[in-house]
Amino acid sequence: MTSSRKFTGPKLVVASHNPGKVREIRALLEEFGVTPVSAGDMGLPEPIEDGESFIANAKIKALAAARATNIISLSDDSGFAVDILDGAPGIYSARWAGPEKDFSLAMQTVEDKLKEKQASDPVQRSASFICALTLAWPDGHTESFEGRIDGTAVWPPRGCNGFGYDPVFVPTGFDQTFGEMDPSAKHAMSHRANAFRQLIDACFSTT
């Protein structure tokens, strides 16, 4: 089995224009002495995400940032997937929020579609958060990892923490939504944390 390429820092471009994602990634990398700077802060354009999977889109973003800055870049492509909606919104999670990134609209759209399915029982409202992470080097090398967490889509939205669809997702085994949880509790067990553990084990030195 080929070993993963190791990150050499300390500077890292976070290939995202989403402040919530950048904030969570900074928190997860803090202990490794990494200095993350976001693509948005660097004025980089957002590439067209036309991949057919979370990992494909993560690669597009990470490679675009790495080649534009000549700095190792990390991207996150994540989304909310509802089983009874055939995994929608999935890779289109951000698009459901529209050009204004209005996630209250996106959450309402999910709920409207669940009502169309008459999905009122928690079993019918099973959902997941999925996160793909890609670390890309300017020479085109990439390392990708995917994490997920299962739970239930709830309504109405609860909590003001987190971002995106967090207020309508209760992870299995918990009674709070991601929007109600303390951020440190979410960081310890989220889909992003799951993918990050794989990334850290493969590409970051912990010695």
From TrEMBL:
This protein's record includes keyword Repeat: no
Binding partners and assembly: Homodimer.
Binding sites annotated in the UniProt record for Mg(2+): D77
NCBIfam families assigned: RdgB/HAM1 family non-canonical purine NTP pyrophosphatase
UniProtKB keywords: Hydrolase, Magnesium, Metal-binding, Nucleotide metabolism, Nucleotide-binding
Enzyme class: hydrolase
Family: Belongs to the HAM1 NTPase family.
Cofactor: Mg(2+)
Residues annotated as the enzyme's active site: D77
Catalytic activity: XTP + H2O = XMP + diphosphate + H(+); ITP + H2O = IMP + diphosphate + H(+); dITP + H2O = dIMP + diphosphate + H(+)
Cofactor mode of binding and number, as noted: Binds 1 Mg(2+) ion per subunit.
EC number: 3.6.1.66
Function per UniProt: Pyrophosphatase that catalyzes the hydrolysis of nucleoside triphosphates to their monophosphate derivatives, with a high preference for the non-canonical purine nucleotides XTP (xanthosine triphosphate), dITP (deoxyinosine triphosphate) and ITP. Seems to function as a house-cleaning enzyme that removes non-canonical purine nucleotides from the nucleotide pool, thus preventing their incorporation into DNA/RNA and avoiding chromosomal lesions.
PANTHER family noted in UniProt: INOSINE TRIPHOSPHATE PYROPHOSPHATASE, INOSINE TRIPHOSPHATE PYROPHOSPHATASE/HAM1 PROTEIN
Top-rank taxon: Bacteria
Organism placement in taxonomy: Bacteria, Pseudomonadati, Pseudomonadota, Alphaproteobacteria, Sneathiellales
Residues bound to substrate: S16, H17, N18, P19, G20, K21, S78, F163, G164, Y165, D166, K186, H191, R192
Name of the protein in question: dITP/XTP pyrophosphatase
HAMAP family in the record: Non_canon_purine_NTPase (MF_01405)
Pfam families reported for this sequence: Ham1p_like (PF01725)
Leader sequence residues: none
